[in-house]
Amino acid sequence: MTKMRTKWRTSITKIEPNKIIIRGIPIERLIGSISFPEVVYLLIKGKLPSEKEARMLEAVLVSFADHGVTPPSTQVSRIIASTGSPVNACIAGGLLAFGKHHAGAIEHAMKLFQNSVELCDSEDDIPEVARDVVNKYISKGKKIPGYGHRFHNEDPRPVRLFELAEELNFKGPHMVFALEVEKILNELKNIKMNVDGACASILSDLGFDWRIGVGMFMLGRLPGIIAHIYEERTKEPPFRKFFDVDEIEYEEEQIFRPPKLKTPE
């Protein structure tokens, strides 16, 4: 008996000879008609955003654009670029550097915000739930994702993002929750929200699932990584030294201890 092949199924893009249909819309109708953030929204959510939603998503992507040579992902990309590797390898190395301690906070924050808001019957419940969350994290000695920054005492990006949200009258429950947590943390520990927390709340109010958080961060950071790769390849000597030999301290650690041999009689 011949086993039937299972067909691939997708509702994202349909490809036919001389035709490309994205979420039911021919590609030629999209080109020149919508912005890149709008097509990102369309691809992931399956519908076109409103003007406010498009503006907020665009602001999120811009806020992620670059953070100098300080992030590990940028450093990895530049190190790979200095070896003469092709640009795709340099980009891949940078993106693979995203993990739990770099870029991972946005997904943790989105999950926290979305789960917490689900516990609220109305916005009146948000302050109490926010207080419970803060107390829970503090009692366990854990850092709340989306708050505090290793470099900035006050990250300038959340301030502008929330200003724009006010200008557009775009302020949903996740944003309200995130700001309430910041208010409590600021009073207790002088800790403010970082860009991950701000964008996590905005993306949650835009209806994005927390599991695509790092993907959205990658979309925003990619232009910055490409710029650093290009700068490294065109302005720095190849195989650039990031450390001199005398800056490296070797610590001998004896992991394997050879067995004592009997002395011959």
TrEMBL record:
Supply the Pfam families for this chain.
Citrate_synt
Q: A Gene Ontology biological process annotation?
A: carbohydrate metabolic process
Q: Which InterPro entries match?
A: Citrate_synth-like_lrg_a-sub (IPR016142), Citrate_synth-like_sm_a-sub (IPR016143), Citrate_synthase (IPR002020), Citrate_synthase_sf (IPR036969)
Which terms does the record give in the GO molecular function aspect?
acyltransferase activity, acyl groups converted into alkyl on transfer
Q: Mention any one GO cellular component term assigned to this protein in its UniProt record.
A: cytosol
CDD domains found in the cross-reference section? CCL_ACL-C
The record's keywords, sorted A to Z, are: Transferase
The UniProt family comment states: Belongs to the citrate synthase family.
| Protein name in the entry | Citrate synthase
